[in-house]
Amino acid sequence: MSTLLRPILALLHIIYSTYLFITIRWTLLQCEFIKFIRPRSLKLPENILNECDVDEIKRLPCHLVFVVGCEEISFVDLSKIIDWCVALGISHVSFYDRYGIIKDNSPVFKRELEKLRPNVMPRVIWSDNFSTQTTVNGTNGFKSTTKVNFLSYDDGKPTIVKLTKELCQAVVVGSVKTNEIDSNLLDEKLKIHHFPDPDIAIITGNTFSTFGLLPWHTRITEFFNLSTHHNLAPKDFINILKMYAKCEQRYGK
């Protein structure tokens, strides 16, 4: 029986792999076509307010996490996400990839944003400047800034493991009692510096996985998937925000 199943499973695997390959290539081809026929809309992020019907968005997230999954990272396209968040008034944005490539190349990220929209830079507070950079009133009718943070796998499960070891040691030496360890204490210890817990996470790529994203902080996070972040159109970003605005969070009720 197993001898018969092996070629069937191999055939199914080939069919599915071919389907994924065609789907990814078709998506990239569509993005390139959109970029060709509408180059200005993709290069000028502030046009998101003119091109898309943002009036339908009744609720914006306070903290948006953009997760780059199994695809090559495009810092040019990710910088557009910051521009759009600044224009819409989203106050906290984090960028996550499992191996910390975005975090390690944050200077490249900043240069791409400065080249794309230099007048937006004063309205962005980077995670490495939280203690020194002050809030500056924005332009185009917005009076807030957008804080940008970079995350990797090390900020998730390894941080929880490290905290567990520290609490165990504290109990052993008597500085913390076991009845003092509860969810409130963990919330306080695991809190992202200057950031609330994420309201929405947008995962890019054909693998819809969290890739180890902040397991403690994403208990009430709404997850959405995009096939790719390359040449992302403003309307696709807006459509996800519209879907998020319609979500009813019951918080366990």
TrEMBL record:
The keyword Endoplasmic reticulum applies. Pathway: Protein modification; protein glycosylation. One of its GO terms (molecular function) is ditrans,polycis-polyprenyl diphosphate synthase [(2E,6E)-farnesyl diphosphate specific] activity. InterPro entries: Nus1/NgBR (IPR038887), UPP_synth-like_sf (IPR036424). GO terms for cellular component: dehydrodolichyl diphosphate synthase complex; endoplasmic reticulum membrane. Its main location: endoplasmic reticulum. Its cofactor is Mg(2+). It is found in: Endoplasmic reticulum membrane. Keywords: Endoplasmic reticulum, Magnesium, Membrane, Transferase, Transmembrane, Transmembrane helix. The keyword Lipid biosynthesis does not apply. The chain crosses the membrane at residues 7-28. Its EC number is 2.5.1.87. Gene3D superfamilies: Decaprenyl diphosphate synthase-like. It catalyses: n isopentenyl diphosphate + (2E,6E)-farnesyl diphosphate = a di-trans,poly-cis-polyprenyl diphosphate + n diphosphate. Belongs to the UPP synthase family. This is ditrans,polycis-polyprenyl diphosphate synthase [(2E,6E)-farnesyldiphosphate specific]. The lineage of its organism: Eukaryota, Metazoa, Ecdysozoa, Arthropoda, Hexapoda.
